[in-house]
Design brief:
This protein is mainly alpha-helical. The chain has seven helices and four strands. It is globular, with a radius of gyration of 16 Å.
């Protein structure tokens, strides 16, 4: 068995949010897209992260974003009745956890989607204004009232709103689907396609 590690020169997303300088909406959307595609890659290999949060996302000086710290990740079990792993409640981070994770239920990629949305919301708000992941939709509603004049930010909030649907099956079918919505938003903000990574 071999283990390969990247040396990422740059801060965590959590540090980037706290230390600034503030990012524009297009840069935030770019980070959100890269996070979503990183999670999609893990999900495609049957891995559910279970602890998605800004502290577990690295932002390289080259602009490449990496989802990190899969220490409490679980693999989807082939042939299991639900095909989903049992949540590692001890490892969850309360402010970003999905309702089903908070209840200690079996979780799948849709739970990571909720946590991703809470992380992206924190990126747009600029701070963590809630203590429990189940309160992230309320924080989104409060933030939406403040962003009435910013069409790009409003479009992103619509994507997050879908990720915050209570029933996992009512969220996006995959992180790739959420990422593709954001790619269109980014094109509208920048007027050009995303740079290749």
């Amino acid at each position: 068995m071999a283990l390969f590690l990247d040396l990422v020169e740059g801060p965590s997303l959590d540090a980037r949010i706290r230390q600034g300088p503030p990012l524009d909406d297009a840069a935030r959307v770019d980070i959100a897209i890269q996070m979503a595609l990183g999670l999609q890659w893990a999900h495609a290999f049957g891995v559910v992260h279970q602890d998605v949060k800004p502290a577990n996302v690295l932002v390289g000086r080259d602009g490449v974003v990496r989802v990190s710290d899969f220490g409490v990740a679980a693999a989807l079990r082939r042939g299991a009745p639900t095909g989903e792993p049992t949540v590692t409640v001890a490892g969850m981070s309360r402010a970003w956890c999905s309702p089903e994770q908070h209840r200690g239920e079996r979780v799948g990629p849709a739970s990571d989607q909720w946590s991703w949305a809470a992380s992206v919301l924190q990126l747009f708000v600029g701070d963590l204004t809630w203590d429990d992941g189940r309160d992230a939709p309320l924080a989104l509603a409060l933030h939406a009232r403040r962003t009435k004049g910013a069409p790009g930010a409003r479009a992103v909030l619509d994507v997050l709103r879908r990720c915050f649907r209570e029933a996992p099956e009512d969220r996006f079918a995959s992180m790739r689907e959420a990422a593709l919505r954001l790619v269109e938003i980014h094109r509208g903000l920048r007027g050009e396609p995303l740079p290749p990574r």
